[in-house]
Amino acid sequence: MIKISGKQVVAARGLLEMTREELAEACGLSVNTIWGLESSKRQAQQATVRTVVRELVARGIEFSNGTGLGVRLDFKRAQEYAASHPAQKAATHTPE
């Protein structure tokens, strides 16, 4: 079972500079489904969580749940995704 919080999804979208609408479209889900997952107002189905996680991870996001909740952006993987998906909006952050 994959466990991520709605706050982690919001943070991941922020790192990717991705709107809720863009994530919903990329996942083939409704904006309301993404909103429900992010707001934790509804219990998301595991298939939905897997779809969202898979899409975010493909774009370079890494989730961690050690002693807290974590989200980070792997710049190399984000750049590789952007290179292989030129029509997709990619994260514009670069390491300093």
Give the rounded overall mean pLDDT: 88
Strand order in the largest sheet: 1-2
Number of strands: 2
What letter string, H or E per element, gives the SSE order? HHHHEEH
- Give the terminus-to-terminus CA distance: 35 Å
Which stretches are poorly predicted, pLDDT < 50 over at least 5 residues? none
Keywords:
mainly alpha, 5 helices, 96 residues, 53% helix
List the helices and strands and how they pair.
Blueprint (H helix, E strand, L loop, with lengths): L5 H11 L3 H8 L3 H9 L6 H13 L2 E4 L5 E4 L1 H10 L12
Helix pairs in contact: 1-3, 2-3, 2-4
Short recap of the structure:
With about 100 residues, the chain is mostly helical. The chain has five helices and two strands; from the N terminus they run ααααββα.
Written account of the structure:
There is one protein chain. The chain has 96 residues and is mainly alpha-helical. The chain has helices at 6-16, 20-27, 31-39, 46-58, 75-84; strands at residues 61-64, 70-73. A two-stranded antiparallel ribbon has the order 1-2. Helix 2 (20-27) crosses helix 3 (31-39). It is globular, with a radius of gyration of 13 Å. The mean pLDDT is 88.
